[in-house]
Amino acid sequence: MRKWFQTEAANRPSGGLRIIEVDTLPELARHAEAWSGLLLKSASTSPKQSYPWISSFLENKPLSGKRWFCLFGYEGDSLVGVLPLIAVRSYKLPFRPLLLFKTPYDVLHTTAVDALTPCGREDLLEEFVKYLQVSRKGWPLIRFKLLPEDSPSMRWLKQDRGHCAVCKTSGAANFVRLPAQYSTYYDALSHGFKRQLKRRARKLEELKDVRFLLRESTRSTAENLACFMDVESSGWK
Question: What distance in Å separates the CA atoms of residue 220 and residue 223, rounded to the nearest whole number?
Answer without folding.
Answer: 5
